[in-house]
Amino acid sequence: MSLFPPGKKRRHFFTAQACVLVCAIIVMTKAMIGGAINEYNMPFSTWPVELYVSEFFMITIYSVVFTLLLSVPLWYWFIGEQDPSGK
Q1: One Pfam family from the UniProt entry (predicted)?
Q2: What is the C-alpha to C-alpha distance for residues 13 and 16, in angstroms, rounded to an integer?
Q3: What ranges do the domains of the chain cover?
Q4: pLDDT tens for residues 26-55?
């Protein structure tokens, strides 16, 4: 059994993984940008470049980590154990 069998199962797994990544990016962006605006009492347009960069990397890293963590159950759901009879 290969890690990612060719065909529909693999395509569904990667599609679900992409959906999880988009959802994680949306949630992390709203949480981190909104939290920084509330914490520093600075509108988005007045942020220094360092704050943009740090927020971008935090959103990227957290989104990738959550996507990897949530990919484990997706892998079992879509690719998981194969039925030996081929059904």
Answers
A1: DUF2534
A2: 5
A3: 8-78
A4: 999 999 998 888 888 888 888 899 989 999
Instruction: Kindly state the tokens that stand for 83.
Output: 């039925």
Residue type, 80: G
Query: 49-78 and 8-40 are packed helices; what angle lies between their axes, rounded to 10 degrees?
Result: 150
The HSE-up count of residue 52 (CA atoms within 13 Å, CB side) is 7
E strand or H helix that includes residue 76: helix 49-78
Over the stretch 14-27, which tens digit does the pLDDT of each residue have? 999 999 999 999 99
pLDDT, tens digit, for every residue of 52-71? 999 999 999 999 999 999 99
Q: What CA–CA distances, in Å, run from 71 to 3, 31, 60, 62?
A: 13, 21, 16, 14
Say how far apart CA 63 and CA 28 lie, in whole Å.
Answer: 7
